[in-house]
Amino acid sequence: MSHLIAPSVLSADFGQLATDVQMLNESTCDWIHCDVMDGRFVPNISFGFPVLQAIKAHAKKTLDVHLMIEAPELYIEQFQKAGADIITVHEEACTHLHRTLQQIKATGAKAGVALNPHTPVHVLSDVIEDIDVVCLMSVNPGFGGQKFIQNTYRKIEQLKALILERNASTLIEIDGGVNAENAPLLVKAGADVLVAGSFVFNSNSPAQTIQSLKEISL
Question: Which positions make up the binding site for substrate?
Fold first, then answer.
């Protein structure tokens, strides 16, 4: 499988959100990444159900919803109904991660788990077969435009080894600081999905930037 590109609408122009989503529809991106922040789990607040519903109304691509919130299990069904095709929760925010994964799958959505930069990959060893996507945070979550953390490459390799060992079909997603320089190295290390926010939306031609990321070859 060739790698997937998931632009983050956190970096889009919310004053013309429908226009930006339409641009993503017409681009070669695969998913649309939606970052939900509650101001408690991370030091920022983004958007919730109404904005996600507005994105869903225009989107023709998979909605990849990343919940950077406390107690995500309280809102799983609402996010699925609002349009989420993939729901990713943080391992650090889930007391009962296995239960939350089953809760996500019961809605019909795919289940993802995100790991903060300080969280080791081995915490997922007992649930990796139940996870559709692991999102490795390559910056500290909360704000766009941060510097990429170099240890991410090693975590990709460790995660890939775990997936292969368990014969799981889990995808590896990288979120934070993705750009033209590190994207080829991430794919080479084993990344399946690249999330790019400011690198895409701050470029002169977001669609062309997405295309350039999509065309990366090993």
Answer: 8, 66, 142-145, 175-177, 197-198
